[in-house]
From TrEMBL:
Keywords: DNA-binding, Transcription, Transcription regulation
GO molecular function, one term: DNA binding
Organism placement in taxonomy: Bacteria, Bacillati, Actinomycetota, Actinomycetes, Micrococcales
Domain HTH luxR-type, first and last residues per copy: 97-162
InterPro entries per the UniProt record, alphabetical: Sig_transdc_resp-reg_C-effctor, Tscrpt_reg_LuxR_C, WH-like_DNA-bd_sf
Pfam family, one: GerE
PANTHER family tied to this protein: DNA-BINDING TRANSCRIPTIONAL ACTIVATOR DEVR_DOSR, HTH LUXR-TYPE DOMAIN-CONTAINING PROTEIN
Name of this chain's protein: Response regulator transcription factor
Length: 165
């Protein structure tokens, strides 16, 4: 039994190495605009991996050969391809936005809430009963706390943090 297990481990190790090599070569082919070659290399990787049920090289985040894999998988009917199609086709979960190091003040939240309307600084000042210079100061502080440079970016960041509806 030990001899069989050792042979299986060697086969699996070779399959893993060959699969990873094919995927790396597929990426190189993609970079050289040789999509057909990349597809052939991914097909080869799938054959080698399927024989030993090797999955990891295909599903590791940032794994090579993903563009060709996405093209090749839909046309295949084997078990490994079915498993990979579920994993490769599923979008990666969006990373959670970094929480604010310094919370926004109530006034900054009011200014942020006015930004999606594309109101001018004067219009925001009139709405909040403050001076234009006060709005500018709040915007400067808001941009710094949100780590953004523009109104559009502030609105996007505010939405991602759940500060805007």
């Amino acid at each position: 039994h030990a001899r069989v297990a050792a042979g299986w481990a060697a086969d699996t190790g070779q399959a893993l190495t060959q699969t990873e090599a094919c995927l790396l070569l597929a990426d190189l082919a993609e970079e050289r605009d040789a999509a057909h070659l990349a597809d052939d290399l991914v097909r080869r990787a799938l054959v080698v991996a399927g024989a030993e049920r090797v999955v990891r090289p295909f599903v590791t985040p940032g794994a090579p050969g993903q563009a060709a894999l996405a093209r090749v998988l839909p046309g295949r009917g084997d078990a490994l391809s079915a498993v990979l199609a579920e994993r490769v086709g599923a979008p990666e979960p969006a990373p959670e936005p970094e929480p604010l190091a310094v919370p926004l003040t109530d006034r900054e939240l009011s200014v942020l809430a006015a930004l999606p309307s594309m109101a001018s600084n004067t219009e925001i000042a009139d709405e909040l009963f403050v001076s234009v210079n006060t709005v500018k100061a709040h915007l400067k502080s808001l941009y710094r706390k949100l780590d953004v440079q523009t109104r559009r970016a502030a609105v996007a960041r505010g939405r991602s943090l759940g500060l805007l509806g």
